[in-house]
């Protein structure tokens, strides 16, 4: 498959990092197309753990080239830190990382604006990662954002920074009553960033299309998940980018017909970080038990993730929105010790059955999940490598997911390391 897309089919944290890392072995290029350092893609191999925030997970495969697409928002300090941390651990980054000239920058005023606006309205807090993602995308949409390519023209950069700082400081000081930011300091650090990074800034759209034309194997790496999509997620409790399939095209500048296979990643249960509706959430001790067993703490913020049963309604919705043709199911082993497992097949809303995902978040907040109870397999499965060697109850659980979602499972992850994987 020349061009494959891996994206999250829940609320993020589905285990995309591991799936991308595995497919990275047979890819020449790995490209990210949306989000920024709000993401945390975890990969484990040879007893080491890597968490990637901005740089595509493919960087861990020495033969790949990695692209940061125009749809992403980049915090310069986070990028430099991540590059340095990887190089210190023996992962070559320079010469392998290419950044779109049209990707936007996250500047110091973005996280501050986000923090004060979240604090101002406690009742309607989104529960963001605090990385300034929303304000940076807001500037992009308002056409005042600063892009990677602007770093290459110092007088233009100075003008844009100056205009932004003037307006942002008015907002910070007059609306929120907090201290503004220092223009000179921002400019100096952007110049230092430019000196380190300028060789990596390219016309990524052209280059990627050329590589695809030449038959290179390209892997597109989604961040967050379908239900966090700005259009199709549980708005307003979403991130600020298109995490769904369209984001891959607009965030890289490639046509939809170039994508040969779309892989949706689903965790064997559901989690969500931050606020917003979550119909299958388990609020009691069982939810906590799953959180502990699954190590469900944010890879970026360390926040505890909310945990719940597998939700077939959102999974079906994600498959439709993204035209998913294969599923990867992760963290099946986390359910090893449970006596029984519930799986949500539909919702009940004010006494009526719903099988389709309600686009209205208010309805989603009120629905109750309709679940089927399935027996647990009650044995460790992390050592299993063949589908046929899984306990019968584990196979029945996977079959049930396939049946509800009407899409075949092609990969099952039974542990965090590369080898703890079953291919179907
Ligand atoms: P933001 O992307 O930081 O603006 O956060 C908006 C919402 O998306 C919050 O609920 C975050 O917890 C959630 N979110 C953002 N990035 C991730 C992620 O990588 N995994 C899971 N949730 C995320």
Describe this structure in words.
This protein folds into three domains: 3-98 and 207-262, Adenylosuccinate Synthetase, subunit A, domain 1 (Adenylosuccinate Synthetase, Chain A, domain 1), CATH 3.40.440.10; 105-196, Orthogonal Bundle (Adenylosuccinate Synthetase, subunit A, domain 2); 266-423, Adenylosuccinate Synthetase, subunit A, domain 3 (Adenylosuccinate Synthetase, Chain A, domain 3), CATH 3.90.170.10. 32% of the residues lie in helices and 21% in strands. The chain has twelve helices and 20 strands. It has helices at 16-24, 76-88, 109-120, 133-141, 154-175, 183-197, 204-213, 245-250, 285-294, 312-322, 361-366, 392-405, and strands spanning 3-8, 29-32, 41-45, 48-52, 65-68, 73-74, 97-100, 104-105, 201-202, 218-221, 261-267, 270-272, 306-308, 310-311, 326-330, 340-349, 352-354, 368-375, 409-413, 421-423. Helix 3 (109-120) packs across helix 4 and helix 3 (109-120) runs parallel beside helix 5. The longest helix has 22 residues, at 154-175. The chain binds inosinic acid. The site of inosinic acid (IMP) has 20 residues, from helix 4.
